[in-house]
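Consider the following input, taken from an annotated entry for Alanine--tRNA ligase (Pilibacter termitis).
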Amino acid sequence: MKKMTSAEVRKMFLDFFESKGHAIEPSASLVPVNDPTLLWINSGVATLKKYFDGSVVPDNPRITNAQKSLRTNDIENVGKTARHHTMFEMLGNFSIGDYFRDEAITWGFELLTSPEWFDFPVEKLYMTYYPDDKDTYNKWISLGVAAEHLIPIEDNFWEIGAGPSGPDTEIFFDRGEDFDPEKIGLRLLAEDIENDRYVEVWNIVLSQFNADPSIPRSEYPELPHKNIDTGMGLERMVSIIQNAPTNFETDLFLPIIREVERISGKTYEVHNSLNNMSFKVIADHVRALTFAIGDGALPGNEGRGYVLRRLLRRAVMHGKKLGIQEAFLYNLVQIVGEIMQSYYPEVLENAEFIAKQIRREEDSFHRTIDAGSKMLDELLEKLKATGADTVDGRDIFTLYDTYGFPFELTEELAEDEGFKVDHEGFKVAMTERQELSRSFVVKGGSMGVQSELLTSIKVSSEFDYTRTNLDGKLEAIVVGEEDKAMLSTGMAQLIFDKTPFYAEMGGQVADYGVIQTLEGTLIANVIDVQKAPNGQPLHTVEIVGELKKGEIYHLAVDEVRRNKVMKNHTATHLLHAALHNVLGKHATQAGSLNETDFLRFDFTHFEQVSQEELAKIEEEVNEKIWQAIPVVTTETDIDTAKKMGAMALFGEKYGKLVRVVQIGDYSVELCGGTHMKNTSEIGLFKIVKEEGIGSGTRRILAVTSKEAYAAYRDSENALRKIAQSVKAPRLEEVEGKVVALQEQLRLLQKENEQLATKLANQQAGSVFQNVKEVNGTSIIASQVTVKDMNQLRTLQDQWKQKELSDVLVLATANDGKVSLLVAMSAKAQEKGLRAGDLIKHIASFVGGGGGGRADMAQAGGKNPAGIPEALSEAEKWIETK
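Applying the prediction step yields:
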């Protein structure tokens, strides 16, 4: 077995499959592009689903990749085990309807065992297979694998809902009896027992069925095109090749761990589980943070952002366990970039931005820790006051979820103060949060079901950018899985040899229009255009005449609609450039939609865009419109496009030829959409809304041309109505009038507050005279006329300063709502009277509830009629004490 670096392992895998005719697919962003079913890219096949479900036919049916992936279901296990990770790399080879079982297994065996490649000892390899899959068993036998090295496993069948599915065969490496102290042997594999002896190297999925959850697996129909999907974990492979006890003692993680040793002054010891867990957590989590932030995700409170915030806080807390009190994770970004530079050079290129975001979040968390410590102190004080001896599990989870406090830390601090902790309550709250997190992940099925007919249609179809109407030959009439020769009614999907209709792509909506005879008779209305699996524009139509395959028809695009969409698309390019100039280069596109009446642009940014920044962006876009800059489109190869300075969207796949849309020296982007010939044709640009749509992602809605004029006109009309209301003769006087009215309102509010306070003081004089003795305790219980709870607290302050009684109970009613306040003097508390206990007792009489400390408590209610009874019950309650 060869000794290799991680970079060499990755390269050898890709080189091997390239030698077998595979195209190397670049690693896609961790943030899914146009896939709402995934929170993160979580496997090598995740970015290739469009090929497997037949919605797109690849240029080369043989694909190989090294795909960075992120999974969040095992975060708690990271650091505890040898091989759990959040971010990892999956090496894979894929066949889309090309080769199948024989080639996949043969090549897998060759790559692993051939002296030319990885050179693994055959006797160290074990394979599992699906019991009913005799073909796979026989294939392994034919390659010389001993029968005792083949283990049938019932779970070796891959399926996720409807769509492609099939048996799989897994390859394991035997690390020897040193990793099997109980000498359990092959039962570890057969019974799926967690172990460190048999390390899974590779999983080969033989995708041959269309799964249907409504029928037994034995009745699944065969796929029209069988596929191969494999996955090899790079980290596991490297740990075997480098003979590392765990994945963390490899060149993928050790440089990070060594730097953490230097920062902390602690030593990483492989078999010291107390310290090495913290080192592992930090090394794993900072890799995930670095790559995810580099791909445009940012820490936040939900979805992807919540995952990153949780990872960062977990890493920081483990840093504290190692004695690191200051921000340090951001200093590890450079090391992560250096480790991964050979295949992911963009990490080092973006290192400064990534480190800045991590430092920002670290500093924020350190402030949060202080707030969390204060919250825990207050919580423990309240528990002491009420005599409770257990910290509620939901309170512990709030500290964990909101402030990042590990359960163990809360438990330790609570026990130091003599409290027990509610383990079960914490687990329940944690489970509820995990269920909520899962709801973010899957919003639909995993893959669609292949359309054999559309996949088989390979006639060429050319989209003409320069025309909005032309004559084209009808090549296919598709209804379901039938290719019709003629059709005269209903809905159908059509393919022509050439078309002026734009198929929806890159955020630009599809063209609408009509199909006519050459004489001008309407035959069909085009209501949608999408790409067929082999790339042809696929026209969805409502038929009103007779269509015949092979006939020539006139295709005419709705030019008014196309023109409005083009204005918005060209404005989107200007907006993207303006965002870069005003907010920074990190504000990159995260999605877009160019409709007829508006444009929508999503971009990465870590905070709300200010009104001043929006004004600058809007002004800059309009300046470029008024400068009447020519919009030039060039078709060239990808390398030339990059030399031109063209900005590619990360995650998008580009072919051999690309279109470069250049707006002077202001904007240069790769784009397959349609555009105006000059920016002046846009007319006007207006931002109508800016909002956050997720952690680290903002959205701008804007309008152009006629819609922009209408937006300005509506704003002016609204301003004129305000001018009339404030009696401003001219629009320019509105601001001064409003400022004057605000000042007048402020003075009136201040006067009102003074009068209310005066009234409350007058009431206090009479209320505080009504003191009763109940069971040796003096009490004032009264309904007063004040506006809110704040004024009740003002009366309570006066009562406390003057020591007018042992107990104070006040009530007020406003707009059908009741406010109750109870206060206890030190003397009353010495007798065992608690304000919180009394408020809970009397709040029910006013239809509400409340609580508080021993000295003061408050409550709200919805039944003013119950106030007299509540006050009376307060006296009765004291009688019983």
